[in-house]
C-alpha cells in the first residue's frame, strides 16, 4: 500500500499502471515525462504526455473505478505518491454540491473517454474556479511534511518565560521548527497552517506532546529545589487537535511516561477553539480536571468575545505581541494591555505578556501589574541544550 509522502522511481518504458487495474493512488511528476494511453479496437492510442508538476491517476481513487488508461514512463521518472486518504478525506469534508459535481464530471469524463478521448485532469484545469497548480502545490507540501515527520526533521525550541519583577525563570514555551534539508529552517507560521488543516494534525500534534513532555522532564532534572517544583512548559495546541476524542488519553500517556505532574504543563489555545463542538469543550474540561492549566494565547486579537471567558474556564491570558510592541508608543495599546491585566485580576487568572524586546516595555508592563512575560529581552526560542544551560545558569546565579 503506498504511503503519504512516498516517492517512486520508474525507468523509461516502465508501466506505472495499466488500464483496467484497480487504482489506489495518484501521482505528481517530480522528474521526467509520462505518457497516457488507452486501448481502442485492440490498438494502443496515445492520449497525451505529461511533465513535471502535473498530476495523474486521480480519477480511480476518487470514484473507486478501474484505471481508464495506461500510464508509462517516457524517460526515467521520479513520482510523488498521492494516497487515496489524502484526496478522499478532502472530498468527504467538501460541500455536498461539490461532491455531486465531481461525480457528474467523472461519469462524463469516463464515458467521453470511450468515444472522444479526453484527459482525466482536464476537468480541473478547465474549471476557472479551481487553480490546479495551487491544489497540487498543497498536496505536494503535505507529502513533504509527512516525510519531515518520518525523517525526524521537526524540532522543538524553547523560549524562557520570566517573572517580570524578580527577573526569575518560571517556565518555557515550546515552539516548533522544521529543519528541512531542502528548504532550511522553516518558521512554524509557514507550515503549521497546512499541518492543522490536513491529516498531519494528529500525528504532528502527538509528536509535539511526546517530545515536549520528554524535554520537560529533562528541564526539571536540571532545575534546583523550588524551580524544579514550579517550572512549567507551555505547549501550543491547535484547535483541530482538541477536536480529537483521543487527545486527553494521548497527553496523559506521554505525561505519565515521563513522570511529570500535570500542573507543570500549560496548554496554549486560541479563542478560535471556543467556536468548535462539544468534543473540544469536553477535552478542555477533562484537561482542567486532570490538573493541566489552560492558557489563552493571542488574547484580544481574534474573535475576542468576553463571553467566552465566562463560559469556559481558563487559567491564564497571554497579551499578544502586537500590543506589547506598541505599549511604550501608543496610548491605545497600553490601555488594551491594562484592560487585559484588569480582567485577569478580576477573574483570578495569571497573565503572560509576549514579545518583550526592550527594558522600557518591561517597565511599562511591571507598572501595569503584569506578572509574567517572554521575549527577546530575556531569551529567544532556543534548542533544548541551550534551555537546559539557561536553567542551570539560573540555578547558580540564584544560589550565589
Ligand atoms: P505564538 O504561539 O503566538 O508564539 C509566539 C511567537 O512570538 C513565536 O514565534 C516566538 O518566537 C515569537 N516571539 C517571542 N518573543 C518575541 C520577541 O521578543 N520578538 C519577536 N519579534 N518575536 C517574538 P514562532 O516560534 O515563529 O511561532 C509562530 C506561531 O506558530 C506561534 O505563535 C504558534 O501560533 C505557532 N506554533 C509554534 N509552535 C507551535 C506548536 O508546537 N504547535 C502549534 N499548534 N502551533 C505552533
Ligand atoms: Ca503560543
Ligand atoms: Ca501568541
Describe this structure in words.
There is one protein chain. The chain has helices at residues 58-63, 84-93, 96-114, 122-125, 132-150, 188-197, 201-222, 225-230, 239-242, 247-257, 278-289, 306-311, 321-324, 331-346, 359-367, 384-399; strands spanning 7-10, 15-17, 25-31, 34-40, 43-50, 55-56, 70-73, 77-83, 154-163, 168-180, 184-186, 232-236, 265-269, 293-299, 316-319, 350-353, 372-373. With 400 residues, it is an alpha/beta fold. The strands form three sheets. An eight-stranded mixed β-barrel has the order 9-10-12-13-14-15-16-17, surrounded by four helices. A four-stranded antiparallel beta sheet has the order 1-8-3-6. A four-stranded antiparallel beta sheet has the order 2-7-4-5, with no helix packed on it. The longest helix has 22 residues, at 201-222. One calcium ion binds next to loops.
What is the structural class?
A: alpha/beta
Could you describe the largest sheet, including whether it forms a barrel? 8 strands, mixed, barrel
Shape designation: elongated
Radius of gyration from the alpha-carbon trace, in angstroms: 26 Å
Mean pLDDT: 89
Contiguous helical run count: 16
Poorly predicted regions are 116-130
What's the multimeric state?
single chain
What is the helical fraction, as a range of percent?
40-55%
Number of DSSP-assigned strands: 17
Which band does the percent of strand residues land in? 15-25%
Summarize the structure.
The chain is α/β, with parallel strands linked by helices and 400 residues long. It has 16 helices and 17 strands. Helices cover 44% and strands 24% of the residues.
Amino acid at each position: 500500500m503506498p504511503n503519504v509522502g512516498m516517492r517512486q522511481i520508474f525507468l523509461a518504458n516502465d508501466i506505472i499502471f495499466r488500464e483496467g487495474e484497480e487504482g489506489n493512488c495518484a501521482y505528481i511528476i517530480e522528474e521526467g515525462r509520462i505518457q497516457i494511453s488507452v486501448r481502442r479496437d485492440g490498438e494502443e492510442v496515445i492520449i497525451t504526455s505529461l511533465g513535471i508538476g502535473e498530476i495523474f491517476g486521480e480519477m480511480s481513487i476518487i470514484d473507486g473505478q478501474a484505471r481508464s488508461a495506461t500510464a508509462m514512463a517516457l524517460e526515467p521518472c521520479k513520482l510523488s505518491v498521492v494516497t487515496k486518504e489524502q484526496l478522499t478525506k478532502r472530498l468527504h469534508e467538501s460541500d455536498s454540491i461539490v461532491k455531486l459535481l465531481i461525480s457528474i464530471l467523472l461519469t462524463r469524463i469516463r464515458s467521453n473517454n470511450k468515444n472522444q478521448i479526453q484527459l482525466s485532469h482536464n476537468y480541473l484545469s478547465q474549471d476557472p474556479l479551481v487553480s490546479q497548480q495551487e491544489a497540487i502545490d498543497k498536496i505536494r507540501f503535505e507529502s513533504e511534511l509527512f516525510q519531515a515527520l518520518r525523517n525526524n526533521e521537526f524540532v522543538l525550541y524553547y523560549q524562557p518565560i520570566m517573572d517580570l519583577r524578580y527577573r526569575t525563570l518560571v517556565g518555557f514555551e515550546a515552539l516548533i521548527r522544521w529543519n528541512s534539508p531542502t528548504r532550511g529552517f522553516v518558521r512554524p507560521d509557514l507550515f503549521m497552517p497546512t499541518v492543522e488543516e490536513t491529516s498531519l494534525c494528529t500525528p504532528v500534534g502527538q509528536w509535539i506532546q511526546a517530545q515536549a513532555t520528554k524535554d520537560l522532564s529533562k528541564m526539571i532534572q536540571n532545575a534546583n529545589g523550588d524551580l524544579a517544583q514550579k517550572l512549567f512548559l507551555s505547549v501550543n495546541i491547535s484547535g483541530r487537535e482538541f477536536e480529537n476524542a483521543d487527545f486527553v488519553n494521548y497527553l496523559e500517556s506521554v505525561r505519565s511516561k515521563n513522570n511529570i505532574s500535570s500542573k507543570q504543563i500549560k496548554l496554549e489555545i486560541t479563542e478560535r477553539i471556543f467556536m468548535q463542538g462539544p468534543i473540544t469543550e469536553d477535552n478542555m474540561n477533562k484537561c482542567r480536571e486532570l490538573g493541566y492549566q489552560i492558557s489563552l494565547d493571542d488574547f484580544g486579537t481574534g474573535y475576542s468575545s468576553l463571553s467566552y471567558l465566562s463560559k469556559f474556564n481558563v487559567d491564564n491570558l497571554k497579551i499578544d505581541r502586537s500590543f506589547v510592541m506598541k505599549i511604550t508608543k501608543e496610548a491605545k495599546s497600553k490601555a488594551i494591555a491594562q484592560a487585559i491585566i484588569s480582567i485577569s485580576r478580576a477573574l483570578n487568572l495569571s497573565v503572560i505578556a509576549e514579545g518583550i524586546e526592550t527594558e522600557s516595555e518591561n517597565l511599562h508592563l511591571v507598572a501595569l501589574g503584569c506578572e509574567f512575560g517572554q521575549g527577546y529581552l530575556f531569551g529567544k526560542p532556543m534548542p533544548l541544550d541551550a534551555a537546559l544551560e539557561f536553567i542551570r545558569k539560573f540555578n547558580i546565579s540564584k544560589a550565589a
